[in-house]
Amino acid sequence: MDIKKIIRKSCIGFEPYVAGKPVETLKRELGIKNIVKLASNENPLGPSPKAIKAIKDNLNKIFFYPDSNSYELKKALSERYRLPVGNIFTGAGGDEIIELVAKLFFNSSDEIVISKHAFIRYAMAVQLMGSKAVIVPMKDGYSHDLKAMFKAVTPKTKAVFITNPNNPTGTYNTKAELSAFLKALPKNSNGVKPLVILDEAYFEYAKLKKDYPDGLEFLKDNPNLIVFRTFSKVYALAGLRVGYGFANEVVVDFIERTRPPFNVNLLAQAAAVASIKDGAQVKKGQTLAKKEKEYLYKEFKKLGVKYLDSAANFILFNSSPLKGKELFAKMLGEGVITRAMDEYELSSWVRVTVGLHKENELFVKKLKKIM
Ligand code: PMP
């Protein structure tokens, strides 16, 4: 039997997605004892002690299903961001949120506007649904060109993805740019403006920049806007898979109807609630990233390595004369995991996550040896 005959057509062309591997897997595969992982933009300080306590306190409850409505989590988010619970939804990380939105809205006749080097999961969600990705080149090569994205909008455009700041380039769009873009968007063939899906996974890092916009401020005037964030980054709960989004109540209502009933697990909900209430831990993560980015910029400059200023907790740097893949492999051999960027069509670039100072020092030491 040819199973491919019954597989959704848009899935046939799927390439396997190779996510960052866990440290233990690499130690096993490479036979190296000491490995430093600077590959997946996690916060090396780890989660809030309050989150750890909440997980421990809830361990004896895991024989129950989690609260399908994430009630406590939505309540905590509602208090923290001063928005009604009806405008909030949750998911198993930003990754699931991208898929929930795609499954709800994207049809095969739709066009979805995406920046060339934007976070890769958007294009994959578009492909999954059999929609057409309209890829727009970036401004100066590395940042979302909102004017060009605007020009790419046609009556068939169902949605536009904006990553702010963008992974892997670390670049961001200013409040003035985003505001002008949202205002100017024309209506599509359904007589409504295309959805704007604003990915703010690195919000807490980027908000230290003066002209970085808080997407939530635009929700009131833009019912076509969906903003989402995650607990995987500054909150350091990547292993638990929990993210959250804000949108018009009609959008939220339909996401609620179509999502899997228990998509956010019980420990994740408890840890996320405790994390939101621990501002001090967020501050520590922000401060570390800011200080260590300065250290890495300084070292890149000394080495004559080109890099992009980042509003997030990672830096994209140029690996020339080596290919990114080669530098990645050499670094791996030295026990430092970075991320090559071939899947983003940035074959001479490597992304490094900003780690603890001693991890960054090790990275620099190995970079000096290799380059
Ligand atoms: N958006 C961006 C821009 C990201 O970098 C990531 C993580 N790599 C995500 C969304 C998804 O993160 P998570 O599923 O862990 O919330």
Automatic annotation (TrEMBL):
A GO BP entry: L-histidine biosynthetic process
Reaction equations catalysed: L-histidinol phosphate + 2-oxoglutarate = 3-(imidazol-4-yl)-2-oxopropyl phosphate + L-glutamate
SUBUNIT field: Homodimer.
Gene name, Swiss-Prot/TrEMBL: hisC
Positions bearing N6-(pyridoxal phosphate)lysine: 233
The UniProt record lists the keyword Flavoprotein: no
Signal peptide: none
Alphabetical keyword list: Amino-acid biosynthesis, Aminotransferase, Histidine biosynthesis, Pyridoxal phosphate, Transferase
Protein name listed in UniProt: Histidinol-phosphate aminotransferase
Organism: Endomicrobium proavitum
Cofactor requirements of the protein: pyridoxal 5'-phosphate
InterPro entries reported for this sequence: Aminotransferase_I/II_large (IPR004839), HisP_aminotrans (IPR005861), HistidinolP_aminotransfase (IPR050106), PyrdxlP-dep_Trfase (IPR015424), PyrdxlP-dep_Trfase_major (IPR015421), PyrdxlP-dep_Trfase_small (IPR015422)
Keyword Iron: no
Enzyme class name: transferase
Cited Pfam families: Aminotran_1_2 (PF00155)
Matches recorded under PANTHER family: HISTIDINOL-PHOSPHATE AMINOTRANSFERASE (PTHR43643:SF3), HISTIDINOL-PHOSPHATE AMINOTRANSFERASE 2 (PTHR43643)
Metabolic or biological pathway: Amino-acid biosynthesis; L-histidine biosynthesis; L-histidine from 5-phospho-alpha-D-ribose 1-diphosphate: step 7/9
EC number: 2.6.1.9
Ranges for domain Aminotransferase class I/classII large: 34-361
GO MF annotations in UniProt: histidinol-phosphate transaminase activity; pyridoxal phosphate binding
Entry similarity comment: Belongs to the class-II pyridoxal-phosphate-dependent aminotransferase family. Histidinol-phosphate aminotransferase subfamily.
Superkingdom, taxonomy of origin: Bacteria
